[in-house]
């Protein structure tokens, strides 16, 4: 049984979906942002809030880090700002278009469907949130290409998870090394690192940050976080045939004011749509067609290895 209610989150209209174990809050006008995901049995809040920054409608085309830096946003059709293919004088914004646009919403009996249209390109992005089980959230995505030309895109979720204790970032065992693509103060972009040497985070603010990608297609479509003191865990799982890449962003206070980590299963490799088109990893939607995929969030506490076995 899932309850869907409306309310107010920091002065903004919000929609709450709640099962016996998970409470999720979403603000449609802020790019469909998931502002809170709480595991009710332990009281664990997984999403980073905006802290001292005010939650307000971003200006379309502005820089992502100038705003609230909180919650779960969708990056589409790029992450890094870049030139739109075949469109002279059209630059796709930083972190894509969707996070800065108000979304339309429709409340169903046990789910919420949100959608948004691009002000620059002929597509509609749609996301449906539901609960397959009390401890699992499912996000179903669909992009409709309404043009007579094919449309390339890159997508990643950008969930800024709150790191409040020593936390291990979990990836499939076959992923032994990760490529550094943002070096921060201590690593070197372009070099690969043994994952077991760089996969730990603490809640201590160092002022550093880094980002990694797995080189090539993932062997399995899951990633996760495990709190080593509390035993709280969270996993994201995707169909690896449709979402074949994985990135991990760690910010220890370089851009945010607290420690946060984003698990980023990815369509396209990596960060810039221009780059993904160039290396042949961008997903392409034919004219007047659509593309669908999904992501599931599994939350619990205790033995995370058992949870992995059922993903």
Mean pLDDT: 96
Order of helices and strands: EEEEEEEEEEEEEEEEEEHEEEEEEHEEH
Looking at how many chains there are and whether they match, the oligomeric state comes to single chain
- Helix- and strand-based class? mainly beta
Radius of gyration: 18 Å
Strand-residue fraction?
Answer: 35-45%
> What general outline do the C-alpha atoms trace?
globular
Number of helices: 3
Distance between the termini: 21 Å
Count the strands?
26
Give the low-pLDDT segments.
none
Main sheet overview: 9 strands, antiparallel
- The order of strands across the largest sheet is 9-10-11-12-26-22-21-16-19
Helix content: under 10%
Structure description:
The chain has three helices and 26 strands. The model has no long low-confidence stretch (mean pLDDT 96). By secondary structure, it is mainly β. The strands form six sheets. It has a nine-stranded antiparallel β-sheet. A six-stranded antiparallel β-sheet has the order 15-24-23-20-17-18. The radius of gyration is 18 Å and the shape is globular.
Helix and strand topology:
Elements: E1 3-9, E2 12-18, E3 22-27, E4 33-39, E5 44-45, E6 72-75, E7 82-83, E8 91-92, E9 104-107, E10 112-117, E11 123-133, E12 136-145, E13 151-153, E14 156-159, E15 161-162, E16 167-170, E17 177-182, E18 192-194, H1 195-198, E19 200-201, E20 209-213, E21 222-227, E22 232-237, E23 245-251, E24 260-266, H2 273-279, E25 283-285, E26 290-301, H3 304-309
Antiparallel strand pairs: 1-2, 2-3, 3-4, 4-5, 6-14, 7-8, 9-10, 10-11, 11-12, 12-26, 13-25, 15-24, 16-19, 16-21, 17-18, 17-20, 20-23, 21-22, 22-26, 23-24
